[in-house]
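S.,

Sequence below, as promised.
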Amino acid sequence: MVVRKVGKYEVGRTIGEGTFAKVKFAQNTETGESVAMKVLDRSTIIKHKMIDQIKREISIMKRVRHPYVVRLHEVIASRTKIYIILEFITGGELFDKIVHHGRLSESEARRYFQQLIDGVDFCHSKGVYHRDLKPENLLLDSQGNLRISDFGLSALPAEGVTLLRTTCGTPNYVAPEVLSHKGYHGALADIWSCGVILYVLMAGYLPFDELDLTTLYGKIDNAEFSCPSWFPVGAKSLIHRILDPNPETRIRIDEIRNDEWFKKNYNPVGLSETEDIDMDDINAAFDDPEEELPNEQCANNDDMGPLNLNAFDLIILSQGLNLSALFDRREDSLKHQTRFVSQKPAKVVLSSMEVVAQSMGFKTHIRNYKMRVEGLSANRTSHFSVIMEIFQVAPPFIMVDIQKAAGDAEEYLKVFLFPLYFFILFSIFDTHPYAHLTFYLLLKGNTRLSIYS
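The prediction came back faster than expected:
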């Protein structure tokens, strides 16, 4: 039998498999320690432009060395593979325990929640926000202690950045402010998810659980849930303070630690001395000077490109699941927004829309692929304003989101959207945008347009 080795690790059976990686059981031949070896194909992650994402996840895990967080040992690379060596956790997922045994006892639920809060608080102290906390991402070690795993959606914002804007996570566990697209504090969003987890541990089911996403997000937005009769008064009170839909008044971790129900039998974990974080193995694994990343350019601060929309954003924005009605209760709110998709470069689309707006007599203000259009209505009696933003969906597609910011809804439909539809023709057919614009302006008898080629 041929024994395969990677560095000092003897590689065994496959214990897990995902879209971009296999996880194998391995053993450190020097210490005898069992580890989990995540194996990634270098060419695949380069092809799918995942280098930065994986480097970020690894660097985050190196920062959060804590007894209740899965430990990353090191990163090894060959010319074709990248090997991420992780702590081998034998107890499975907390999710599986709930599935097989149902709700946990009060004392057991409290103990796991205490460990979760300790681990999450340490991550926050290092500037790391998990953003996908759920029982599936909480593992159990051989002693029955918690281990937070899967930092693939985590954020490590730059110094001075207080609000996160990426909509991500698992719908049933996500905080209401994450869905608003107005920015959110990562720590407060994680606290909300911890509250959902505590509810699940004690109830055996979710506080927010609907097949229809619009209904689900509506209940999350209003924190529409009720605690079962068997919940202790203290736990019920704490959960309601955590699942506060207003992040400004939501309980903080320091307050959770001072809660009477939480403090019972609480033994804060002892931390070892701070370890030096060595990033050399990450750089050695990914920053191979002989490797050229295809179609990758360095963006400067003035041209960061349009924001990327992930699958979570597309669910929220898709027709029939538009959540604007949840946050804007007016009956005609859906009439104030429209979207279209184009395969043209984002800069071309933006500049063309700017010409459309300026030729109609509107002033335009552009910043980071977001344009505000302002002016007077057709009868010149009221102020009119529209916001247009470009998002990257998936190369080569972009999505243009157009919303009325101020003014009459009829003006928005008649004065702005109608001429814009001529521009949308440009996004479908490979013709010059000014051709459609000129045709429209000729129909209206507008002679102000002087640009045509």
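The chain has 15 helices and 14 strands.

Coffee later?
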